[in-house]
Amino acid sequence: MSALTTDEAGDGQLQRTIDWRGAFWVASGVPALVLFSIGGIAGTTGTPAFLIWTASIILGLIQSFTYAEIAGLFPSKSGGASVYGATAWLRYSKFIAPLSVWCNWLAWTPVLSLGCSIAAAYILNALAPIPGFTEASPEVLQYMAANVGTSAADAVAALTTAATPAIRSWTLYHGTLGPVSFSLNSVFFIGVILMLVTFAIQHRGILGTANVQKYIGLVVIVPMLIVGIVPIITGQINWDNYSPLVPLAAAYSPEPGAWNVAGWTLVFGGMFIAAWSAYAFETAICYTSEFKNPGRDTVRAIFYSGLLCLALYTLVPFTFQGVLGLNGMLATPIVDGSGVAEAMARMVGGAGFVTSIMVMLMILALLLSIMTAMAGSSRTLYQGSVDGWLPRYLSHVNSHGAPTRAMWTDLIFNVFLLAIAAADATSFFFVLSVSNCGYIIFNFLNLNSGWIHRIDNGHIHRPWKAPTILIAVGALLSYVNAMFMGAGAKVWNPWALWAGFIAAALIIPVFCYRHYIQDGGKFPVHMLDDLGITQEDLKNRKAGILPYLTLIAGVAVVILANWFFVI
């Protein structure tokens, strides 16, 4: 990127202002992602849910070794593992390389809309709570006395409806869009405000973002650790809540099932969604061109972020399930995320004021994950533009070193997604599952880029080199993840897999516009500077047909898994 001109880059370039600690704090929003789907995964898998989270974060750690190595090859690039892996595929197809970048962005950017929808729901609950009448409430008894013959349940329902603030049901406009709904309701408008706040913080550049997230991260991570540890120490764990260790007979129903095809399908559905959260700490290497010392900082950033996630992704789901039990995990407020903070307060023996504190911390946790997502996904768009895969306007950087046009693109796209996510839980999980299809595609391409880089660019110095066995295991896991997608996407929505493929294919017209119309069929000359090769060298394909066979095998695994594993 050293050859990048001011005209190409906009007003400036990304600035080397942070070390691995800064990237660690920017990535510290990743642990909060466990709260997005902790109820959803329990609702679809049952008692094995806590093991699914543990298995998923372990797989993510193994895969991170490949990402850490390939990141070291590109000290002048930003945007994350997808950018570093895409270059490996460039020799074999012009279209596969941008697919990796696009799918990584497609996976990360919905964190903005999904996180804002949950945070907005918490704010709405605080400002306009739904009254909690019970059959013993004086108001209920008075209503029954005044309306002879009315049952207690009907009285509770009638009073709740009458006392619920109108803003809870208000919507400016709503409708359906294919398999999902959308709504311009109060959650939507609060979410938009939260997005704009996030944008304002990120506008100051990566150093300012890291400084803000360091303090928010401490405020959020420490309570999550407390919630993960205190119930174990205080004896609140009910060990019966982990048995029988079998999948559910049907999603969101407490009856135990069996380890049959339907049961494994639900488990793979859980592994599929868990990957979206548990693998996400790889965002710590999105900032290579902003590290003061890329060779040292890159590997430290991803490994320390991974260790933090290992602790929280293991402890938090374990204690949630141990305290709440399966029925508690299946409760609507846990599944949709709106009751997670109250549950966390109960786990540490608090109520009232403590619950209010937990709600505040939950909102901060969600904002932290939103800032992490905007920082990473905008840099993916930026670097994709600099390297000639995405439209030129995304290359603009402001005087603080922030890719503002990429950030605006993120924000505008997520306003659309927010309208869907704010409608209902079904639409929320549809967005999440389609997003994760992109993530698994990126994951497949990047894990295999490790061995492709070894073959084609083995002579290039690596600041850190992963053990060869881990590169091989990572390649094997790419097929395991492909199986999770083929088998498990349908658990969340019958159209999720195919919608994911369609969303991934949208890169084709976008790339064709940039490459053939804006650039006349040529890539920017600086794109391969880090590898020390020219575009003429791309014709030398040392891996032969192996990358093509890899792609064919990956598609076959997805299709076969989708056909075999059914609910």
Care to describe what's here?
With 567 residues, the chain is mostly helical. The chain has helices spanning 6-9, 20-26, 34-45, 49-71, 81-89, 96-108, 110-127, 138-146, 152-163, 186-202, 206-233, 261-278, 294-329, 332-335, 340-347, 353-386, 404-421, 425-456, 468-492, 496-505, 507-518, 546-564, and strands at residues 171-177, 180-185. Strands 1-2 form a two-stranded antiparallel ribbon. A hairpin with a 2-residue loop joins β1 (171-177) and β2 (180-185). α6 runs antiparallel to α18 (425-456), α10 (186-202) crosses α16 and α18 (425-456) packs across α20. The longest helix is centred in the middle third of the chain and has 36 residues, at 294-329. It is globular, with a radius of gyration of 24 Å.
Helix amount:
55-70%
Shape: globular
Quaternary status of these chains? single chain
Distance between the termini: 49 Å
- List unreliable stretches of 5+ residues: 1-11
What is the number of beta strands?
2
Helices and strands, in order, run as HHHHHHHHHEEHHHHHHHHHHHHH
From the alpha carbons, calculate the radius of gyration and give it in angstroms. Answer: 24 Å
Helix count, DSSP H or I runs of 4 or more residues:
22
The side-by-side strand order for the widest beta sheet comes to 1-2
Which key features would you list for this structure?
2 strands; 22 helices; globular; 2% strand; two-stranded antiparallel ribbon; 567 residues; mainly alpha
Characterize this entry briefly.
The chain has 567 residues and is mainly alpha-helical. It is built from 22 helices and two strands.
